Amino acid sequence: MKISLSAFLTVIIIAIHMPCKGQKENLYVGTMDQRESKGIYVYEYNRAANTFTLLQTNPEIKNPNFLVIHPGGKYLYSVNTVRGNDGKRFEAVSSFAINKTNGILKFINQIPTYGKATCHVSIDHKGRFVLVANMNSDSIISLSLDKSTGRRKSNGLTLSLPAPCCLKWLML
């Protein structure tokens, strides 16, 4: 059976542009606690139709002002404001498991950042550590990650410097 080069290339081009069965694209959006926002929004993106469909909101998460996804794609982390049992507000890092079928978030836990104006979270390329910037406390804290559960725990490492607001890991 002979196939012309143009027919072969046409099949390859169509295969490249066809979405893979079972693959979905999701968009996670953190919103500030104002104008009736509902925390973290989860949308499914349909590339063929160029549309977004709302899948979930997480109104219990207040002011999720920065989101990052673990390199393994199984967890999402957010820095946000929390109201404690005593009614006082504090800054925290929240973690969520990402459902691998539909991208829906399931809350795991929150831990305080021990800072003010927590504005950024970054994960190292191996997914072992999280760095959190506390802008108004002049500090960066480090948290260790449990790869199997997504939970974080303080490892006692703190870096002090004026008004940190953005973090980025680079492996050389």
SSE layout:
Elements: H1 5-17, E1 25-30, E2 40-46, E3 51-58, E4 62-69, E5 75-83, E6 89-98, E7 105-112, E8 118-123, E9 129-134, E10 139-145, E11 152-160
Antiparallel strand pairs: 1-2, 2-3, 4-5, 5-6, 6-7, 8-9, 9-10, 10-11
Mind explaining what this structure looks like?
A hairpin with a 6-residue loop joins strand 6 and strand 7. The strands form three sheets. The protein has a four-stranded antiparallel sheet with strand order 4-5-6-7, with no helix packed on it. The protein contains one helix and eleven strands. The radius of gyration is 20 Å and the shape is globular. About 10% of the residues lie in helices and about 50% in strands. By secondary structure, the protein is mostly beta strands. The chain has one domain: 7 Propeller (Methylamine Dehydrogenase, Chain H), CATH 2.130.10.10.
